C-alpha cells in the first residue's frame, strides 16, 4: 500500500513539494511518521488514547526537524470540521477506519471537504466483494456461503491501520464494495482516480508467520497482483484513491 500511495503522490504533485497531509485514524503513526520523514507537514488524528501515546512516543525519538513537521491530535475522524478549515490539506489518508464506522458517508464527505482542489484522498477498506475468500480457503464452507450475502464480518485480527502490530479486537465490523464507494466518491466531489488490491495472496497467513527470506519477491508479487485484473478484485483490502475536483 505504501508503494501504491507513493505512486499516486509522485504522479500528482511536483517533485520536492512539501505537502500538507492529514492522516485520519493514524493508529500508531506508521504512515504519518514515514511521510513526515519524507519532508511533508503531517497531522495525525486518532481517537484511541493508547495509540496516540504510542505515536507520540515514536515521534519523540525522531530528530527535531521531523518532530516539528508532525503534530498529533486526539480526536474522532468524523469531527474534522471542528479541527480544520475546508481545503486545508493536499493529501488525506483514511486507512483501516471505514470498517469500524457504521455510516461512513458523512465521514467521507467531511474528509473530501478537507482537501484542496486537486488533492488526493487515500482510503484503505475491507473488500466487501471478497469476504468469502478467507473462509473458503480455510475450508469453512458455511462461513464462505454466508459471506456472499453480507458486508459484515468478524476480523481474524486487526493491524494498526497503517501496518503495525496486530491487535485482536473481536468486533463485528463491516466491509465496502468497490461499486458503492465509487458512487460515494463521485457524489462528494472526489471521484475515484485509481484503485488497487492489497493482500491478494497473503491475507490467509496466520499471525506470527515468519517473514520469508525473499520478502522483496513476495512484495513484488503482491504489488503486481494489486494492480492486475482479476487478482486485485479478490484482494482482502482495497486501496482507493480519489481526487478532489
Give an overview of the whole structure.
The chain has 245 residues and is an alpha/beta fold. The chain has one domain: Vaccinia Virus protein VP39 (Rossmann fold, 3-Layer(aba) Sandwich). The chain is 35% helix and 23% strand. It has ten helices and eleven strands. It has helices spanning 2-12, 30-37, 49-60, 64-69, 80-83, 104-114, 133-137, 141-147, 178-187, 215-225; strands at 20-24, 41-46, 70-74, 89-95, 115-126, 152-153, 158-159, 166-167, 173-174, 192-198, 237-243. A seven-stranded mixed beta sheet has the order 3-2-1-4-5-11-10, sandwiched between helices. It has a two-stranded antiparallel sheet with strand order 6-9. It is globular, with a radius of gyration of 18 Å. It starts with a helix and ends with a strand. The model is unreliable at 157-169 (pLDDT under 50).
Cα-based radius of gyration, to the nearest Å = 18 Å
Taking pLDDT < 50 over at least 5 consecutive residues as the criterion, the unreliable ranges are 157-169
CATH class: Alpha Beta
In total, the number of domains comes to: 1
Terminal-residue CA separation: 23 Å
Strand order of the largest sheet: 3-2-1-4-5-11-10
What string, H for helix and E for strand, traces the elements in order? Answer: HEHEHHEHEHEHHEEEEHEHE
> Per CATH, which architecture?
3-Layer(aba) Sandwich
**CATH fold call:** Rossmann fold
Amount of helix: 25-40%
Mean pLDDT: 92
Total of DSSP H or I helical runs spanning 4+ residues: 10
Q: How many extended strands?
A: 11
Amino acid at each position: 500500500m505504501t508503494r501504491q500511495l507513493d505512486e499516486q503522490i509522485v504522479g500528482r504533485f511536483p517533485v520536492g513539494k512539501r505537502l500538507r497531509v492529514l492522516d485520519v485514524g493514524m493508529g500508531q503513526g506508521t504512515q504519518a511518521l514515514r511521510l513526515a520523514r519524507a519532508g511533508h507537514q503531517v497531522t495525525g488524528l486518532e481517537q484511541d488514547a493508547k495509540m496516540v501515546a504510542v505515536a507520540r512516543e515514536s515521534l519523540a525519538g525522531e530528530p527535531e526537524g521531523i518532530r516539528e513537521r508532525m503534530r498529533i491530535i486526539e480526536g474522532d475522524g468524523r469531527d474534522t470540521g471542528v479541527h480544520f478549515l475546508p481545503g486545508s490539506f493536499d493529501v488525506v489518508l483514511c486507512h483501516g477506519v471505514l470498517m469500524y464506522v457504521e455510516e461512513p458517508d458523512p465521514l467521507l464527505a467531511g474528509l473530501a471537504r478537507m482537501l484542496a482542489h486537486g488533492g488526493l484522498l487515500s482510503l484503505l477498506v475491507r473488500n466487501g466483494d471478497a469476504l468469502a475468500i478467507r473462509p473458503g480457503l480455510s475450508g469453512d464452507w458455511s462461513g464462505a456461503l454466508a459471506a456472499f450475502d453480507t458486508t459484515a464480518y468478524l476480523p481474524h485480527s486487526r493491524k494498526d491501520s497503517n501496518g503495525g502490530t496486530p491487535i485482536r479486537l473481536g468486533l463485528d465490523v463491516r466491509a465496502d464494495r468497490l461499486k458503492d464507494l465509487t458512487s460515494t466518491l463521485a457524489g462528494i466531489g472526489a471521484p475515484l482516480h485509481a484503485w488497487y488490491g492489497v493482500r491478494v495472496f497473503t491475507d490467509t497467513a496466520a499471525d506470527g508467520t515468519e517473514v520469508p527470506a525473499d520478502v522483496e519477491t513476495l512484495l513484488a508479487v503482491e504489488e503486481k497482483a494489486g494492480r492486475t485484473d482479476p487478482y486485485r478484485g479478490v484482494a482482502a483490502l482495497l486501496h482507493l484513491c480519489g481526487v478532489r475536483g
